[in-house]
Structure to design on (427 residues):
């Protein structure tokens, strides 16, 4: 008699190889010509523009506006390109693009694609009118590119999103929301034109009382706080954001106030809230974040492989030593395994398959830990040279570490997965 896991696997295969489910796409391990063309296009940009600039902007620890503008000029940064990536029915184009860009450099990659987290929040929770109004403003224009910020974490609310203290109070007299609080670790925080902020409209309801708000450009009371001096991805801007009686129009709550009021009323009646503002965004972005980690790992592996094939010790190439060769084999194995988990989760999300076993969290967890382990092994293979800032694997190792921390730590991912597979409230 087949086990439950075997039955689920058989059902998944049957779903994946059919064209049912309302015209869903057939799963294939072979990339289409469009996907190959896009992959090669982004790889070329990473190789010719991103990599040559990576060391400079990492050392400066400044936002690389010139590189972002170059990405905008070729159509890699902007609303139109994101729409093209999302339009792929297989769901694979977006992770492919992220892997190639972050293969070039993670700090610059995050500077270019960090806006997409705020965009995902607007797209996932906003009304059609809000999507049409705000998403183009997140990117600006080719001549004057802009960035957006998604602000969820706080000094005392990281993994524990229920601890968010930022409040949003509705002023009926002026039809405005008044936001007060402090956000931490916000990518593009303070330099963004558009800030998407998670705030509590009812503290007693915990995370079920949260909502997402768009803060328009130039809004008074929204100011950058301290800029974070980071271990890695240093070309990406990260800062606190202070909200001091920040007033925004009533229609700036994503999804609309009527929908929010209905959800809060449901929760107070003891019914399910259906979704939580921050969690809904993270669930759609974790496979993409996993793809970024795969790109970093692949870059370090390829550099270490080339180095091992050229470096001689004791009269032969070091790759001819079994210890080195087996290490490289393990690195390649883990990278490919992580990529397959990312692709599965991206495909499931795009085709509407249920994440019954937290496949999105699986992909992010595996890819993040692979990135850390592979970049460390790359340094070990290169010895003292690997530890030197004259070689890029040192920077890749620093960049990789954040992928076991942000958008859900490895421990949180394991918690999500364990709850999904057990059906129990693991604490």
């Amino acid at each position: 008699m087949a086990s439950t896991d075997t039955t689920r696997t058989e059902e998944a295969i049957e779903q994946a190889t059919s064209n049912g489910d309302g015209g869903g796409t057939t799963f294939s391990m072979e990339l289409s010509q469009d996907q190959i063309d896009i992959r090669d296009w982004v790889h070329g940009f990473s190789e010719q523009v991103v990599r040559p600039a990576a060391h400079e902007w990492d050392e400066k620890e400044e936002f690389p506006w010139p590189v972002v503008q170059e990405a905008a000029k070729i159509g890699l940064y902007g609303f139109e390109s994101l729409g093209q990536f999302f339009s792929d029915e297989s769901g694979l184009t977006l992770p492919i693009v992220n892997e190639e860009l972050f293969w070039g450099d993670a700090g610059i990659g995050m500077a270019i694609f960090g806006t997409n987290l705020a965009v995902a929040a607007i797209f996932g929770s906003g009304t059609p009118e809000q999507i049409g109004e705000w998403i183009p403003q997140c990117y600006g224009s080719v001549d004057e590119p802009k960035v957006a910020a998604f602000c969820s974490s706080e000094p005392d609310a990281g993994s524990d999103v229920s601890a968010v203290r930022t409040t949003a109070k509705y002023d009926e007299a002026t039809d405005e929301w008044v936001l007060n609080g402090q956000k931490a670790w916000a990518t593009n925080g303070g330099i963004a034109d558009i800030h998407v902020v998670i705030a509590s409209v009812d503290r007693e309801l915990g995370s079920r009382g949260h909502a997402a708000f768009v803060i328009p450009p130039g809004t008074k009371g929204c100011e950058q706080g301290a800029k974070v001096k980071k271990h890695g991805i240093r070309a990406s801007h990260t800062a606190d954001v202070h909200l001091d009686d920040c007033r925004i129009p009533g229609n700036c709550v994503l999804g609309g106030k009527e929908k929010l009021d209905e959800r809060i009323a449901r929760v107070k009646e003891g019914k399910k809230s259906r979704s939580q503002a921050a969690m809904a965004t993270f669930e759609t972005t974790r496979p993409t974040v996993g793809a970024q980690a795969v790109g970093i790992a692949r870059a370090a592996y390829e550099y270490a492989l080339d180095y091992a094939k050229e470096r001689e010790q004791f009269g032969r190439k070091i790759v001819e030593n079994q210890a080195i060769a087996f290490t490289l084999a393990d690195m390649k194995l883990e990278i490919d395994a992580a990529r397959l988990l990312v692709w599965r989760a991206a495909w499931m999300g795009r085709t509407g398959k249920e994440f019954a076993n937290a496949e999105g969290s699986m992909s992010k967890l595996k890819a993040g830990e692979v990135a850390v382990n592979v970049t460390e092994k790359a340094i070990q293979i290169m010895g003292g040279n690997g530890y030197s800032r004259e070689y890029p694997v040192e920077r890749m190792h620093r960049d990789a570490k954040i992928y076991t921390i942000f958008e859900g730590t490895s421990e949180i991912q394991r918690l999500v997965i364990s709850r999904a597979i057990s059906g129990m409230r693991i604490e």
